[in-house]
Design goal:
36 strands; Immunoglobulin-like; single chain; eleven-stranded mixed sheet; mainly beta; 3 domains
Length: 427
């Protein structure tokens, strides 16, 4: 499997995960001259192994200059945010990450952390209300910094005791810190993030109504050179926060379904969503309309404005949690009704003035490739399909003597029908 490489301020997304390099606080440093940073990964198996390498000038004053991380969901700095359903802290049932990493280089020049931004509006990073940082490896200056913050206590999870502190991040938001109490490195195992967040709710006044949207786990580089490799990273996440159940269908499919594609002359749509919710309809990437579901969650759409041709309509709803649900229906539309086009133009056979002694052929024209049903009175006597020019013919047989009222009904793929009739006598 080929290895892919990311460089300064780039990202690569696969599913719910993104490999991401965010360089900041680099000052006058020039990439490629003063510093380098890169991440290697397997694009076909993103989480199997991710390696970060960097080289920064050695500084006497440590200052964060880059964050090279694996992002899950909609993390604050994720360039290509992959949606993961948002959840209030109170609705989390599971949030556990599995880590397994190695590191080398100037060990005083970087931290390994998980970083989380909690928002007051689901999925909206402009409403960040708090930051949570979980330190897995930290040099002495980071440990001293945490010791200078307001201590909130300790918590033991899966045999690891974490000291908890509170500071203020660069945006002036509350910054909650978890760091191993004995200064040891935590390089592998399960990290129960849900339990940590609940500890902050119970002991630090963190609001349980704030939203989790995603996280990032990686290396904060500040100086010197180093390498960090994460293998088999993953996040297990579950929430009781509802995801909208949205449906969409043709209100009345008038025609056939061929190779999974519906044909219709009636473009009206209907579906279900949350009660009284707004449902946005897209035709491809274009917004067609926004409709409102009723108190029972039923919505409808008058599709008369849709043009003839192919349509792929997606109905989407985003609820108050910021969670989205959608469904799609594809169909071929032809609102123009089927034409008779002198459907029974003439009858071929031996006879004149509508009287035949030899069973006649019924010949006519309709829409191309259309099913044609032949009736004698109320009795169906045969069926044919018109050719690509709309021509059809039917050879009658076993006719009884007397008057025959021949009716022809043509029904095209779209379910549009046309009728014609002709009378003759057979002797």
């Amino acid at each position: 499997m080929a290895t892919s490489t990311l460089y300064d301020n780039n990202s690569y997304n696969s599913g719910s995960y993104t490999v991401n390099i965010s360089a900041f606080n680099v000052g006058s440093f020039v990439y490629g001259t003063d510093y380098t940073e890169s991440m290697q990964f397997q694009s076909g198996s993103l989480l199997s192994s991710v390696t970060a390498n960097w080289r920064f000038p050695t500084a006497s004053v440590q200052k964060i200059k880059s964050f090279m991380a694996i992002d899950y969901g909609n993390y604050y700095n994720t360039s290509t945010a992959k949606f993961v359903p948002s959840s209030r802290i109170s609705d989390l049932t599971t949030l556990v990450e599995g880590i397994n990493f190695t590191m080398s280089g100037d060990l005083q020049g970087f931290n390994v952390i998980t970083d989380i931004f909690l928002t007051s509006v689901a999925g909206n990073n402009s409403t960040n209300a708090a930051e949570v940082e979980i330190f897995f490896y930290s040099p002495s200056d980071s440990q001293a910094w945490v010791s200078s913050l307001k201590a909130l206590g300790t918590i033991t999870i899966y045999g690891i005791t974490w000291k908890v502190a509170q500071g203020t991040d660069s945006a002036g938001l509350p910054d909650y810190i978890f760091m191993p109490a004995n200064g040891a490195d935590v390089t592998s195992g399960a990290i129960n993030v849900k339990t940590m967040l609940q500890y902050l709710v119970d002991n630090a006044g963190l609001s349980s109504s704030l939203y989790f949207n995603g996280l990032a786990t990686g290396v904060e580089t500040s100086s010197g050179s180093g390498s960090w490799t994460m293998t088999n990273f993953g996040v297990t996440y579950a929430t009781t926060a509802p995801v909208p159940g949205v449906t969409v269908a043709l209100a009345n499919q008038t025609g056939q379904t061929v190779n999974g594609l519906a044909y219709t002359y009636n473009p009206n749509l209907t579906g279900k969503a949350d009660a009284n919710s707004a449902v946005t309809l897209y035709d491809g990437a274009a917004v067609v309309a926004t409709v409102t579901a009723d108190a029972n969650g039923v919505w409808t759409f008058d599709g008369s404005s849709l043009a003839n041709g192919y349509h792929n309509i997606k109905a989407a709803e985003t609820n108050s949690y910021g969670n989205s649900g959608s469904a799609s229906v594809a169909f071929q539309l032809w609102k123009t009704q089927n034409s008779i086009n002198e459907m029974i133009q003439y009858m071929a056979g031996q006879g004149t003035n509508g009287v035949y002694s030899v069973a006649p052929d019924i010949i006519g024209w309709t829409s191309p490739n259309t099913a044609v049903q032949i009736y004698d009175g109320s009795n169906a006597i045969g069926a044919v399909t018109s050719n690509s020019s709309g021509y059809y013919s039917y050879q009658t047989s076993n006719l009884t003597d007397g008057v025959h009222n021949i009716g022809v009904t043509a029904t095209n793929l779209y379910g549009s029908t046309a009728h014609a009739s002709l009378q003759f006598s057979f002797v």
